[in-house]
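Lab notebook, design round three. We kept the backbone fixed and only want residue identities now. Task for the bench partner: fill in a sequence for the structure below.
Input structure tokens:
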């Protein structure tokens, strides 16, 4: 009987990282067989004007029906997870297996508190000169009630 290899686990601190750039890096790692855990999902950053991005999100939220779908997530961790899903071929077996290796958390769970986390320098919002806002702010604008985590 063959011993199954345990995939290496990568902890990504999403604080201050641009959502799209971070998700593409995470998707690549997932497709390469790594298990990825994203922490501080609500602190990830969107670039652009908040008002226009929220208006765009409200238009998108009108698509579908609550009973049938498509279902639009408002929680930052679910939102980020779905953003990564769009970057993997999730309808194919390799994409489905990659997507199963992804975990996303708001904040940092106690069992992961002391472990080493990485960040992507290319996805950092430190060199953004224009307007930007966090995923948590966006989620509150589109209807996330953060009292019910």
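Proposed sequence:
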């Amino acid at each position: 009987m063959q011993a199954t290899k345990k995939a290496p686990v990568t902890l990504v601190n999403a604080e201050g990282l641009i959502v799209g750039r971070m998700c593409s890096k995470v998707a690549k790692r997932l497709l390469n067989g790594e298990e990825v855990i994203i922490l501080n999902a609500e602190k990830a950053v969107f670039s652009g004007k908040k008002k226009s991005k929220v208006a765009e999100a409200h238009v998108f939220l009108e698509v579908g029906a609550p009973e049938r779908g498509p279902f639009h997530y408002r929680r930052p961790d679910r939102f980020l997870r779905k953003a990564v899903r769009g970057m993997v071929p999730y309808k194919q077996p390799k994409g489905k297996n990659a997507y199963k290796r992804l975990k996303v958390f708001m904040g940092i769970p106690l069992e992961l508190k002391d472990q080493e986390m990485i960040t992507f320098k290319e996805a950092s919002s430190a060199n953004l000169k224009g307007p930007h806002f966090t995923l948590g702010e966006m989620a509150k604008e589109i209807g996330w009630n953060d009292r019910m985590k």
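Keep this in mind before ordering anything: The mean pLDDT is 92.
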